């Protein structure tokens, strides 16, 4: 039986502007409201901060089995999870922005612990490489922890995004950034077993497209790391022939035309 | 014999202003969100386009605002570790002011620089800057036609452009001006002054300062919260604090009216875009 929807001043599915008051944030016996993406709390009330439509998703704290039902009310698709128990249900109220610029994802910012897609611009022997951060790659591990993430990406035509939903999610798209941010990859962060004897040009060359994780926001650039099996080179071009190389092992890639092998730290293919 | 009664004096007897408005009416206002192509539209190069834009006209004053961001800061000395840097600049075009006033250089005009700073303060009060550490949001306002009230129009346009760019705001900021002068012996409090009325109120058009009873007050508020974000009075108040309170009150009512116009325009567009995403309507992202 579907849980009762939270009673909001602007009902779910209507368009709101920044500053519209949505609800009182007080934990009652049956319902807890949590501020999701696009909202903020001030003096005990929940307000909208984006121009968009109101969405609500539940994180069912009950351990009973959940089923997913899609209801379409007034043109806004919402996803509610039905739980068969009457325990305290938390509702995450979020705003789905209707601004077209969020289709491209221009309002996200790289943060620590995100996986990013970048391109090596310079390799400074032997200590580090400069990377241009081009896009953010949403990772299953990171989305469940953050409410501030831009969870409004169009992941599938009709489904709403629900960060902590246990039902299977379609893979989120990559979020490109408007302008590349700059990052730095240091010698001690190249491989899982960090060692200062690894030469950086055995792992990366200028022009490679890599997946890396942001370790810290350093003084000048973001400090990146590829010290995981699934991070590393995604695409590399052979110096001699100019063709795209194929991976041979975790540390070598081979050009199919000239059969030349070059050393790279290759990213393990992600499971679909 | 010289006729000393001017048209405005006669009109003010029946409480109609020089452009035919009642004292409490604001000028006809139109807002257009997404006036310029943004990064979302197909082949537009990311480096040349903007994140959001808005074209606002209040009466004959027309202002275009372009927002870009959040993006990486080039110079590390400018970046803040816990919030975004807000970079605001206001420019006038040579054809914006009536008459032959081309001797005003937009980059060194003090009035413009002051208004850019005020705009930056107003927007910093509203944007949730802490969500984008070490990034830059840049807001550029271009005054296309100036018939008085360009700061107010700029604030309104900046709010709409930020909403168009999807940058989270605490609340919409709306701005309106109000004033008071002695005309024909009666005190009138008027809302949303145009250029001619500002000149009468501040006496800038010719001859020294305004008479001691005139007040001109641009005000920016967050109407849904009732917070005043900006209020700038450069007139001399001749020991009459009540007059100031009345004018402020009138300005806040004016801001509420401006907010209604902006909210209506914005909700319509928001609903249209939402329906387009759902596949229920065809909306041209930019109708230019």
Can you tell me about this structure?
Chain A: Residues 143-172 are annotated as: Disordered. Chain A: Residues 110-215 form the Exosome complex component CSL4 C-terminal domain. The complex is a heterodimer of chains A (272) and B (288). Chain A is mainly β and 272 residues long. Chain A contains 3 helices and 18 strands. Chain A has helices at 101-104, 140-143, 200-203, and strands at residues 15-16, 21-24, 31-35, 39-42, 45-48, 52-59, 66-73, 76-83, 89-97, 115-124, 128-137, 175-186, 209-217, 222-225, 232-235, 246-249, 252-254, 261-263. The two termini of chain A are 33 Å apart. Chain B is an alpha+beta fold and 288 residues long. Chain B has a single domain (15-277), classed as GHMP Kinase, N-terminal domain (Ribosomal Protein S5, domain 2), CATH 3.30.230.70. In chain B, strand 6 (174-183) and strand 7 form a beta hairpin. In chain B, helix 2 (110-124) packs across helix 3. At the A-B interface, helix 1 and strand 12 of A face strand 3, helix 3 and helix 5 of B.
**Largest chain-chain contact?**
A-B, 43 and 50 residues
Secondary-structure-derived class of chain A: mainly beta
Describe the strand arrangement of the main beta sheet of chain A, using strand numbers. Answer: 10-11-12-14-13
Overall pLDDT of chain B, averaged? 81
Number of helices of chain B: 5
CATH topology of chain B: the name is Ribosomal Protein S5, domain 2
Q: Are there runs of chain A of 5+ residues with pLDDT below 50, and where?
A: 61-85, 141-171
CATH hierarchy: architecture of chain B: 2-Layer Sandwich
Identify low-pLDDT runs of chain B: 205-210
Mean pLDDT of chain A: 72
Distance between the termini of chain B: 55 Å
Oligomeric state as shown: heterodimer
Number of strands of chain A: 18
Largest sheet, spatial ordering of strands of chain B: 1-2-3-5-4
Strand content of chain B: 25-35%
SSE run of chain A: EEEEEEEEEHEEHEHEEEEEE
